[in-house]
Every structure is written in structure tokens, then in C-alpha cells.
Amino acid sequence: MKQVAKNFLWGGATAANQFEGGYQEGGKGLSIADVMPGGKDRMKIIHDPTFDFELHDEYTYPNHEGIDFYHHYKEDIALFKEMGFKTFRMSIAWSRIFPNGDELEPNEEGLQFYDRVIDELVAQGIEPLVTISHYELPLHLATAYGGWRDRRLVTFFERYSRVLFERYQGKVKYWLTFNEINGAQFMPMLSLGMAIREGDDQLQLTYQGLHHQLVASALATKAAREIDPSMQIGCMLIAAPVYPYSSNPEDIWYAHDAERMMNFFCGDVHVRGEYPSFAKRFFRENGIELVMEDGDLETLKAHTVDFFSLSYYMSRTEKAEKTEDEAAGNIMSGVKNPYLKASDWGWEIDPMGLRVILNKLYERYELPLFIVENGLGAYDKVEADGSVHDDYRIEYLRDHLKAMVEAIEDGVDVIGYTSWGCIDLVSASTGEYSKRYGFIYVDKHDDGSGTLERSRKDSFFWYQDVIQTNGASLFEDETVK
Fold it and tell me: What does UniProt list as catalytic (predicted)?
């Protein structure tokens, strides 16, 4: 039988700013996520050069309440336990620990909240997988410092990381430094907390900010190993194979070049500890001159990651001259692939692409891989009896998990899988509740109505069976020799 390792980490993934709520409770400060409005124009609004980081009466802010995990965490963790989770990916809200981001001492009430959450996970036998920074830079660091363009954020992040490592050593083994760090190349506001104003050199600011984050990640890795050498520190990137639209050599090169900057630029720094040659050429040809401090390159080289984690939602198709229709995607987009169907939000569905990118990443880095995001955002219908028949989600996840198992059969070392939005939450890209990913339905809606009551979708019981059989049920309809 095709199968995964007995100690494979099955679970689900979330982000504090998308489901936690309690945005002004427990001494928490505001984050950039707290001023991002809900609705399909969210990305357009926050990337407008005039975005002012203020709250406005004409907008709604669903992140403020999320699904109120802040007050429902025991109930939710009990549901995760019922599904059989071996691990749960969560993030810590930086502004709950350092409300402004630049304080010298942390907020004890915020630390105590995560004490309770992590202790509950451990008590239920669920391994915490913690992201340190997940698209929620403290607002003060964005408005007073200009986000990650400012070198001082390296110091603030290292201080914040050390507090977490010291507080949760012995309880949290797996850590991720920055969520989808390579997304900064496409969405500097989400990743870098950085507004690009009229007249700004976006490329220069983006890659300078990325350099600061990469140094901060290396210093956090150094700190973790000093505090508790048993901790495992991973990077986290958006991963997507980039296909050429045709066999035209121009398309093939264009896709190859796009894939290197997408999947391997940040990966090479995190894993190999140095900037790759293709990035140096990109910097040179685009007039990008990174400002570095003495010792930066040595720090990157000395403190590389233990494992490579990734989000996978779709592949990307590119051509040198874009005359085809553009396809939507997870932050990045290409041209439409005529061989693929798309989700309700236009994201192309490509299970084989997961097998492709897992093989490419493992061949390049030879480090354990961890799929920490994968899922289908869709409209769910609640039936009269309260059930949700989400066969479309089951089909999507089954096809992707089978592709993952095929990659494992190929020899790829995949140590775990956490489905994105295992419980319904607020979409990062659109700020909507209606774009649902979860196995668990939450009665909360885009107009703000809802009871927050939790209920099990059909996919809940399907995933429960997948975990219980350690993946064997994925192939129950096949004759496997």
C-alpha cells in the first residue's frame, strides 16, 4: 500500500489575525491586519499609494472578531482532537505580545493567553506548530518605522522571538519564522507592512525589506538553538511550479526565470545561506543595491533552517508575451492554463502541481518538507438539518493528498500536512467569511450576522478517516499493488 510514515503530522492550519478575534482584549495592540477592510476590494484598497492605516466608518473589519477563537479555543481544540489532529498550525499575534512592537518588555497577559492555548493543545496530544509572524505586523511598526524597510525591525523581531522561545521551550518543537516570506515580492503590504507611496522605488524597498526579514529569520534561528537546541526552525514559502505556456523557447525561459525568483530566491537564502547568482543578476539589472551591515552574510550562512515548509494552492502558467487571459491566484498570477479547472475565486486546481513542486524542492534542498497550507476556498450551503455536504472540498483535498503520497513514493521526505483554514475563518485576500475552507462550519457571515456556533461538515468525518487510517483511505477505491 502507498502510505505515509507512522509519525506523519496530520493536522490543520490557521492564522491569529484571521480567526482569533479579541483584537483589543488582553492588552493587545493594533496590527496591520486590524486596519485591513473586508470585501473583495481589500487588496486594491491596502495597496493604493494613499492607504492611511486608519479605521474608517464606511468599511467593515471582520478580522476584529474573526471566529472568536480567543474565547472558543477549548471548544475548537476539542474538535481538532476529535478529528484526530497530530499537529495544529497557529500563529502568535506579535501585537498581543508587544502591543507596539518596539517595547523592551512583553505584555504578560498576551503571553498567558498563548500559555492556555498551547497547554490545551499539549494536553490533547496535539503538537503545536507556531508561526512567529503571519501577516500581522504591529501597526506602530508600519506607521512609525515604515515597516520592514527599517533595519531596526530586525532587533524588534529578534527580541520578540527570544521571548517566545524562552516562554514555550519544552512545549513547542516546530517553529516557522515568517509566513510566505516570498510573497513580499507580490504583496509588500501583507508581508512587509510597507505602504508603497507615489515616487517610491518599489523593487529597491521590497528587496531591502526582504533582506531585513531574512537576517531577522537567521537571528531567530540562532536564538532558538541557543535557548533549546531541540527546537526545529523552518522557513515558509508560497510554492508553485511555473509552467511554460508553450514549447516556445522564449516561454520556457520566461517560466524558468519566474520560477526561480518565486520558489528558490528566498529558499536558497534560508537553506543554503546565500543569495543565488540569478538574484544577484536581477538586482544588478534592476538597479537594486542592498544595504547590509557587517556580518549579515555570515549570519545568513551560519544559521540556516532545519526544514522547509510551504503553502500550495495552485500552479502558475507563464508566457513571454502575455496575450492570453490572466488567471487569479494566491498573491501571484499568470496566464490561464487551458488544462485546469478553477475554484469559485478563479484559483486554478492542479493536484499534480503539488507532486511536481515537492519533487523540485526536495531535489534542490534535501531537507524535510512540511505542507503547512493547502485547501479550497468555496461557498458552502447549510442544509435544513444543519449539515454541509462539501463533496467538492473532499475531492480537492483527496486529489492533493494522493499527489503528496505519490511524491513520498518518489522519495520526497514530507513530514506533515496541515490543511489551510481547518475551521472556517476570515479570508486573507478578500476579508470574507463566505470564502470558506474549513472542516468545521462557523455560523458567521459577511454582513456581521451569525451565532458563531460550530458544526461538522461532511469533510470533517472524511478527514477524520484519512488521519485514522494514516492516509490508506485515500486509496480505498483503487487496487494498489
Answer: 373 (nucleophile)
481 occurs within a structural domain: no
Nearest to 439 by CA among 397, 481, 384: 397
For residue 7, what are the contacts with CB-CB under 8 A and spacing of at least 6?
none
CA distance 178 to 141: 16
| Whether the Cβ atoms of residue 407 and residue 354 lie closer than 8 Å to each other | yes
C-alpha cell at 284: 544588478
- The CB-side HSE value for 56 (13 A sphere, CA atoms) comes to 11
Q: Given the residues 158, 348, 373, 432, select the one marked as catalytic.
A: 373
Using an 8 Å Cβ cutoff, are 305 and 225 in contact? Answer: no
Dihedral angle, C-alpha 139, 141, 146, 151, nearest 10 °: -160
Q: How far is it, in rounded angstroms, from Cα 313 to Cα 332? A: 11
Give me the helix-helix angle, 202-227 and 152-168, nearest 10°.
Answer: 30
* Residue type (1 letter), 326: E
* CA dihedral angle for residue 362, residue 83, residue 330, residue 415, rounded to 10 degrees: -10
Q: How many domains does the chain have?
A: 1
Q: How many helices (H) and strands (E) does the chain have?
A: 16, 12
Is there a domain that residue 3 lies in?
no
Q: What is the DSSP letter of 226?
A: H
* Model pTM score: 0.96
178 - beta bridge partners? Answer: 133
C-alpha cell at 446: 459577511
Angle of CA points 286, 290, 296, to nearest 5°: 150
- Residue 105 burial (10 A CB sphere; 0-12, 13-18, 19+): exposed
Question: pLDDT of 239-278, one tens digit each?
Answer: 999 999 999 999 999 999 999 999 999 999 999 999 999 9
Catalytic site residue 373? yes
Residue 190 domain flag: yes
Answer whether residue 2 is part of any domain: no
Per-residue pLDDT tens over the stretch 294-337: 999 999 999 999 999 999 999 999 999 877 676 666 456 689 99
Domain that holds residue 56: 9-475
Amino acid identity, position 80: F
The domain spanning residue 273 has which CATH number? 3.20.20.80
Per-residue pLDDT tens digits for 452-461: 999 999 999 9
Cα–Cα distance, 363 to 357 (Å, whole number): 10
